[in-house]
Description:
Elements: E1 3-11, E2 14-22, E3 26-30, H1 37-45, E4 52-57, E5 60-64, E6 69-70, E7 78-81, H2 93-98, H3 106-119, H4 135-147, E8 153-157, H5 165-181, E9 186-190, H6 193-199, E10 202-207, E11 210-216, H7 217-222, H8 227-232, E12 237-247, E13 250-255, E14 258-263, E15 272-277, E16 282-286, E17 292-299, E18 303-310, E19 315-321, E20 336-341, E21 347-350
Parallel strand pairs: 3-9, 3-10, 7-8, 8-9
Antiparallel strand pairs: 1-2, 1-4, 4-5, 5-6, 10-11, 12-13, 12-15, 13-14, 15-21, 16-20, 17-18, 17-20, 18-19
Amino acid sequence: MTIQVRALARVGTFALDxxxxxxxxxxxxxGASGAGKTLTLRAIAGLLKPSSGxxxxxxxxxxxESTGVDVRTRRRRTGYVFQDYALFPHLTVAENLAFGLKGxxxxxxxxxxxxxxxxxxxxxxxxxxxxxxxGGQRQRVAVGxxxxxxxxxxxxxxxFAALDAPTRATLTAELASLWSRIDIPTVLVTxxxxxxxxxxxxxxxxxxxxxxxxxxxxxxxxxxxxxEVARLVGVQNIVPGVVExxxxxxxxxxxxxVRFDAPASGLRPGAKVTVGIRAADVIAAPNxxxxxxxxxxxxxxxxRSVTLRTEQGGEFMAELRRADGVGExxxxxxxxxxxxxxxxxxxxxQEP
Length: 352
């Protein structure tokens, strides 16, 4: 299945201008709040009409401004799970699941509802109303209602936004398992890179209504095309640097007082660059003769984050395993540290 989306639209003062294609069974649209993620999903569903563009699923064209094609929402065969789930409070679980089955004979509708109950582990909840369900159960009902009419495309808008962290983790695993058992292409929007990576094979990164990067999840995650994409995929340390040497497709240099070695070409000594590295790839250890001093630390239970500042003013966050023993209860973390970078984990972008 290939989904192609090219859409221009204006909503108030916000301009949406997206263009991407994905052949993955699950595609995640990733971006901060206000990036245009939901507007993109609404355009795919037919709830927002672009001023121009083309939207197609395989050979089925849903919208094409140049030829006048604009398939009505109810005929696009898309299942849509809204961020707040939009369940009908006066209907039971079974009635909510059956809502999209109007026109289907009663016996067949009952069979489909039973199928959704089994698929989404809702047995015993059929007669409950939404207010008597947990957040996770409501989400499963919303997904089941969207799947019941056998859509050709499933759209999920921030599926975990209303859930607490433990429930989000559990349902992320459940959804990943569900996708392995159903053959329905899915597009989801999220601001959480961990959810996007866990659920999708293809990532589309949006900012201010435009696509910054689109590609296989590993490529986008490990090789972000720009500092802006790097921030959105969770690179905590993005600092200015200077190239000192280039040789055989690699460059070495200095970023905020820390040496770096990274794959890059076409950069001459003295070139100004932006350097990115994840906190987990910053090597930091107490050292009385170190190159940085402790600014602050956050104890996360099984891990700790320390923010360190070099003599040259560079500030870096490092994620440390709890097992390192530094900063345990009743002990003070030392002031002086030594920072270095894992060699294969540094990203370099040439400044314009």
